[in-house]
Amino acid sequence: MNIPGDLAETLRNAQRVAVLTGSGISAESGIPTFREAQTGLWERYDPQQLATLEAFHQAPELVWNWYEWRRELVERTEPNAGHLALVELEDLVPDFALITQNVDGLHGRAGNIGVIELHGNITRTKCSMEGEIVEEYEEDASPPVCPNCGAPLRPDVVWFGEMLPPAAMETASNAARTCDLFLSVGTSSLVYPAAGLPREALASGATLVEINPDETPLTAYAHYSLRGKAGDCLPSLVSALSA
Ligand code: OAD
Q1: Which of 84, 105, 187, 228 has the most CB atoms around it within 10 Å of its CB?
Q2: Residues 40 and 119 sit within 8 Å (Cβ to Cβ)
Q3: What are the residue numbers of the active site?
């Protein structure tokens, strides 16, 4: 991927860079994106209908098993060149914030520090009543129950209709409003409030860069639209910065 010379220059001069990632960055690790058709056993289910509190109340076993399947998928995958380039970028930029909508934990496994996880993390489990993270429990039921109160356990992710963790959202919003350059990577830019972050950055005068093989509702607003895969574009961007 060819990086425009003036973009490389802007990145080189940037003191503060904020990055927002979506499921597209993990596609090259083998994790289907959120809106992509699901495969195998789960083909006939719509993720948007499984990822809700209502679905969990109505069909707790189905929802738990779906997350178990996704958790196992995530455990078998590794961070890809796109994730690794963001670790390098964190080292190169004076002030760096990585905000993700992904629940796969791959940024942390790649080595980024202080990742702002807006939608939680699939590798953690919490009590559906108390909201506390539960580390140890009997895995004898689907879903298992909380050892403290007996309520069903659930993944520590944000479901449709649920509030985002307020502290994470505030940190993300601050990073967006104070950055010189905002990078939106592998997200369809459809789901708010995360989709509002690049717009906040833009309103505060940041340079907006989008990396996505396809057009999104954000493309028209981006100063630079790099039409390609995160695993190609991000390493190229980092090379251009260090050149
Ligand atoms: P989507 O599935 O909506 O969008 C994935 C985006 O990644 C699409 O725009 C693809 O074009 C792009 N893409 C695919 N392969 C790519 C690659 N190799 N490199 C770069 N981009 C690529 O996923 P998200 O935008 O992450 O929220 O979805 C946002 C949120 O919607 C999810 O976090 C989830 C869902 O509602 C919750 O569960 C709360």
Answers
A1: 187
A2: no
A3: 119
